[in-house]
Amino acid sequence: MGKKNQDRATATNAKGASLQSHGKALPKVGGKIDADTFVAARMQEINSMQSAIKETSAALKLPSFTSQPRFLRRRAASHLLHHLRARDRARLSVKLANGRVIPASYRKIKSKMLMDELVSRKNKVKWLSTHKWHIKRMKMQNWWGYRLAAHPMYKSRRIIYRSFTKIALLHDASYQGCLQLDGARDRIIEILNKFTDPLLPSVGSVRFTKGTRVGHSYVYASGGYPAHLIAPITFLWRPSSTPDNSILWLWIHPSSFDIVQRQLIEEASSTKVLGQQVEIHDLRNDLARFELTGPRSLSLLQAILDPVEESDPDHLTNSTINCQMWRGLQQLRSGCCIPNGTVIGLTVQDPRLRFPQKARPATAHSDLTTTDFSSQNMLSKTRHWPAEASESEIWDKSIRNHCQSTKTTESRLLKRREQMPMPGSTLPFIPSEDSRIPILLIQRNGPLADQSTPTRLSEARTEQIDGWTLIVPWAFGSSFWRSLVYAGARTGGLDAIHNVHFDCGYSCFPYDYPTTPAFENYQEITGAAAQAKWERRPPSKRLNYTKLGFVSPHHIPFAHVLQATPTSSSMEYTYDQQTTTGGVLLQGNTLVSLLLDGSGGKTSIETALRTTMADAATARGMTFGAAPQHLLLESMAVKIKLSSEHGGTLKSRARIYLLQDDRFAQEYAACRNKRQVKSLDTVKPPTDADLIGFVTTGGYSLVTGQGQGIGACSALGLHLLEEMDTRRKRSLKRLVLVNNMISRDYTLATLSVL
């Protein structure tokens, strides 16, 4: 017998001896095993094992990052997590060496040094609660003192369009600053009435003071109405407030937050002398704000938000109606069925307990047995929304701080998951350990646009896009964000929100609001970047704007079309020690209707506009900032939308001219197939006197399927256009010529008023 066979026999004998020695210790198993019951009890484990086998097999053939959907993939710079980028690594190495340059082979930075560098970056700009999630997946930019996500690291133009039209688009709008005003309700209303638009509903309107709906308005400089527009605002009253002790929240864009805050503090300080004090608190680090837009927004929120009452019946009884109203919304096809701006207050569980959540399929029908409301009863409830349904504990600062201090750590949740008998099952809600998170839900009809002036004088628009705004404590911002993303919401940055406004034909602040300081600052930054890019190109490879006759090609010179009179010194105002000159931006049905009224001439229109604005300001208790004789059409602007007539796109900073060629206008109106008009070479070129406005945002609209532009024009130019169409009896109204500043060619477009 060979040596190999001897070793094999020895191993076999040893194994048999081992089995005999341990045979007495083996327990006896009695009874019968039901195969069906046994398999059913272990079905989830079997499915998990099969999924793991499939994933492992796929990992052998495909890269690991392709196993996730594209919108969930992240951007990894390196597998060495303790390293920075090359330019940051070199700069930090010089700091550590106290002036001595360290060789490249020794430039290894430890984790503590990395954190020091990240903290120094954070001190320069503010971070949102979802900053760490965004920096791994999106391009980040510095805007208005924040480090914000601009766009994903992949082509997302059409993905964003499909998201807000078919699924849901998620955007972190926590950079919208929130101010809290505490004091007597009448005094708060008196302060805000001095700054807000008098032609819009007042902050003290009965529809808003109940706290069941949010309101929108515009803020003007103190004593500057109607010329010095600052920014649009959104406000909400606390439902349970009393006339002597009321609370109001104001949301302001970060580009104008400091100006509005300083203005309110100066006005509120004067109330201390009168004995009526109004306190102003900054809540920018207390609240996180998420905005969802799309038909699946309500389904995603229904899957994420679990009211505490469903698992803790001993909770506060005044929140029961909130839970019933929230679950009753499942009976509705869309959130657009309830009034616009409706507020719902809830106290929900930590979303990490059931992470990851999945929204119900779009074709699934709601279960009528899970709610006490039928669809007809729910619709009747929405017409008279109860004030109790808008109550929320998020108004109380002590409760917000308590939620932050008692937040369960991730390590504790992992230990609880390890102790669960079934892997992958959700964690139960423990009242004594888990947090009760107060939130606010605000319903929105349409895209993320300014709902205070839904003016459509030239075209009817009936489409509505379901949208919701979720407000949660800052400490739980990242938790809700991850749950919404994994439930199916598509994320978007600043560019995505700008594109949503553009595709739907709405103006977006501050990109499309001329005469405001935020618009001027944005144009200064983007114009300097465009000019630097143009100067980097060789002279023979770049456009010669001087030869083409374009003045200020990298900026939008609205001063050329808004010509104030020499005596109108009141048109100048100082923002942050900088004197700016702006015109009057006409907004709302009242003022635009007076402008488009062709019954009178220029003088009668100016008189009607001055009288309307002066009477509204006097009735509201505002100081009329401009002399009536100085408010002329030459110093007024109107927001407009342009639609390309025969193909082609409209670029940003494009010029808008009047069409003086009557012969071409008649031939174009008589042409049956206007899409065949490819050239405008026969059109008489306009002059500088025909310039009436500019395009602030241009491109190709995926909603309308044609070139589109959002911009503004002078009120005098719009009046001349209306007068020209009426006097010359043109069958096609409001035809204008647009020049994209890349050549001397022009594009024909139709103008409509926003």
UniProtKB/TrEMBL annotation:
Keywords: Nucleus, tRNA processing. One of its GO terms (cellular component) is ribonuclease MRP complex. Residues 8-21 have a biased composition (Polar residues). The keyword Nucleus applies. Residues 38-100, 120-183 form the Pop1 N-terminal domain. Its main location: nucleus. It comes from the Eukaryota. Residues 467-556 form the POPLD domain. The keyword Nuclease does not apply. It is found in: Nucleus. Residues 671-753 form the POP1 C-terminal domain. This is Pop1 N-terminal domain-containing protein. It comes from Absidia glauca.
